[in-house]
Amino acid sequence: MHLIVPKDYDPKLSVKETQAAIRYIRETFQDEFGAQLNLSRLSAPMFVNKASGLNDNLSGVEKPVSFTMKDMGDDTIEIVHSLAKWKRLALKRYGFGMHEGLYTNMNAIRKDEDLDNYHSAYVDQWDWEKVIAKDERNEETLKSTVRTIFKVIKHMEHEVWYKFPQAVHHLPDEIHFVTTQELEDTYPDMTPKEREDAITKKLGCVFLMKIGGALKSGKRHDGRAPDYDDWELNGDILFWYEPLNKAIEISSMGVRVDADRMMKQLKIAHAEDRLIYPYHKMVMSEDIPFTIGGGIGQSRLCMLLLGKAHVGEVQAAIWPQEMIDKCEAANIHLL
Fold first, then answer.
1. Hey, what's the signal peptide range on this chain (predicted)?
2. Annotation says 166 is catalytic
């Protein structure tokens, strides 16, 4: 357990007022976000059949919560880690056209998460995916989409300021683009997380690009599953978060793999055995749309816009008693 306790923390809003602000942010953001990216709201599963290969493997070490069902024989059912692969398949199944997309509420359990101010075992985010052309699988498509998402977040800051002026946390006016290799070159003696903090503190808001592959040092900045993001065309949106003196990640996203990129990345990850799954076969045969997509943390966004010290202030979850006691003593009211 790792907990940052800000000195003289003032939550500004009561628990009841915070709940009203959470509802406002979630409802307002998803409507504007969907409109700006031409996304339709869809329902999505909370669990999938393990045999489908649709669950997100994250960095490869986290184990999903699993169970069996009375009417499903011996099939293993897994609670999703995210809907990264399911969304792309849904675009095909539901007949979405060029530059059309979907977004959905994604609720997941990541039981192996290290709990801290930002991380909970319960994950709630807007998962989204959009159809693009094959020749749009490039950096400009990625950057343009990132700028649109940043614009919507900035607009939400103004909306929250209008409704809750005493609570809004002000954000920078610009997002900057930096690669993981540039970070390693600039801060060679730092850990990846220390590099993220250093560059985000310097620039305010950063889209950190090219996550998953090995850097010149031979090390990876961070792990990424090999079968959905193209590691050359992905990244995270990071804001410098003054209340905790640390960067906060709001979104992970990217252009999705085509057949060539998926095969290369599966080989690097020694995960060619996944090619038996229907999703992977469709990617290899190009029988599934080319897409861009990602996730935007709902509780993280509320935390950012309201200047909260702990994600548990905007999300009901389970925490160690030691963390609960320390938070209560510091005026941090966990839901």
1. none
2. no
Q: Which is catalytic among the residues 82, 125, 251, 315?
A: 125
Query: Is the four-CA dihedral 116, 170, 108, 221 of positive or negative sign?
Result: negative
Rounded Cα distance, 285 and 290, in Å: 12
**Whether 125 is catalytic:** yes
Domain presence at residue 141: yes
Amino acid at 81: H
**Can you tell me whether residue 56 is helix, strand or coil?**
coil
10: CB partners within 8 A, 6+ apart: 331
Question: Which residues, including other chains, have CB under 8 Å from residue 57's CB and lie 6 or more apart?
Answer: 81, 225, 227
Task: For 49-85, write each residue's pLDDT tens digit.
Answer: 888 888 877 766 778 888 898 888 889 999 888 888 8
The length of the chain, given as a count of residues: 335
Structural domain includes residue 183: yes
State yes or no: is 56 an active-site residue: yes
Domain residues for the domain of 220 are 15-329
Closest CA to 246 of 4, 10, 1: 4
Contact 101, 39 (CB under 8 A): yes
252 a catalytic residue: yes
| Dihedral sign of CA atoms 230, 231, 234, 237 in order | positive
Residue 250 predicted with pLDDT over 70: yes
CATH number at 37 reads 3.30.930.10
195 is annotated as an active-site residue? no
52 belongs to the catalytic site:
no
Q: Is residue 2 part of a domain?
A: no
Looking at every residue in the chain, the average pLDDT score rounds to 93
Asked whether residue 305 is domain-assigned, the answer is yes
User: What is the tally of structural domains in the chain?
Assistant: 1
